[in-house]
Amino acid sequence: MRNAAAALVLALLAATPVSAQTTATERSAAGPVLERIEALQGDIGPTELAQRLVQRHRAEKDAVMDRVARLWWDELGALSDHIGENPESGFQEYETVDTLTQVLAGRGFTVETGVAGLETAFEATWTSPAGGDGPALGIIVEYDALRGTTEDYHGCQHNAQSPVGFAAAFALSEYMEEHGRPGSIRIYGTPAEEMGPPAKVIMHRAGIFDDAEILVRSHGSGETSRNRAGFGVCCLNINMARYTFTGIPAHQRQSWAGRNALSAAVQFYTAVDHLRPTFRPEAVIQGVIPEGGRAPNVVPDRAVVDYYIRYPDEVYLAHMDSMIANAARAAALATGTEVEIEVYGEYRDGITLGTLEELGFAYAQELGAPAINSEPQRPAGYEETGFVTRDIPGLSVSVFSSSAPGHSYDRWLDSMKEVGHTGFLLDAKIMAAVLFDYLEDPDFRAQVQREHREMAGLFDQYLEGLRQAYSQETGVY
Question: Which residues of the chain form CATH 3.40.630.10?
Answer without folding.
Answer: 47-232+351-440
